[in-house]
Design brief:
Strand content: 25-35%
Oligomer: single chain
Strand order of the largest sheet: 1-2-7-6-3-8
CATH architecture of the domain at 9-63 and 90-128: Beta Barrel
CATH class of the domain at 9-63 and 90-128: Mainly Beta
Radius of gyration: 16 Å
Number of strands: 8
Length: 161
């Protein structure tokens, strides 16, 4: 089945290249950027200022192709793609939880941005801990490696071939 989405806006970030950018929002806490929606959608941002954090859903627009087993940034072993957050995926969809700093018309200023400049935005949702946070999750192979995400930078391992 073919599914088609249209971008609702773009993300403006300081990252122009895939290598040496944070691999997760936890490593980008101080990175400020903007989410710029199409002007005709700006009324959809009404009431968003009441939330401290937002979930950004976006297209990994520079990602092409995928492998079912990959060596993720936080491990030396090959893992199943769906047990990782590797960017080269069957459907190149990304998700980040960011801190909302301000809203002005169709622009959101956010912190914790770990995406490339000009990334197309597919959707924005409010982050609600009661809905989105799970009590005592089990995180598989990342259990002893999750702390590395705050300092690990991307490299070229997922660059298009």
């Amino acid at each position: 089945m073919q599914i088609t989405f249209e971008a609702i806006g773009t993300i403006k970030s300081p990252f122009k290249r895939i290598d040496d950018m944070p691999i997760q929002p936890s490593g980008a806490a101080d990175v400020i950027g903007e989410v710029i929606l199409k002007p005709e959608l700006s009324r959809g941002l009404d009431d968003v200022a009441g939330f401290s954090h937002l979930i950004l859903i976006y297209c990994l627009h520079r990602s092409r192709g995928f492998e079912l087993k990959v060596k993720p940034f936080l491990d030396d072993r090959r893992r199943g793609i769906f047990a990782t957050r590797a960017p080269r995926r069957p459907n190149p969809i990304g998700l980040s939880v960011v801190k909302l700093i301000a809203r002005e018309n169709n622009r959101l200023t956010v912190a914790g941005l770990d995406v490339l400049d000009q990334t197309p935005v597919l959707d924005i949702k409010p982050y609600v801990p009661d809905f989105d946070a799970v009590d005592k999750p089990v995180i598989g192979w990342l259990t002893d490696r999750r702390h590395l995400a705050a300092s690990k930078r991307s490299d070229t391992r997922f660059k298009n071939k």
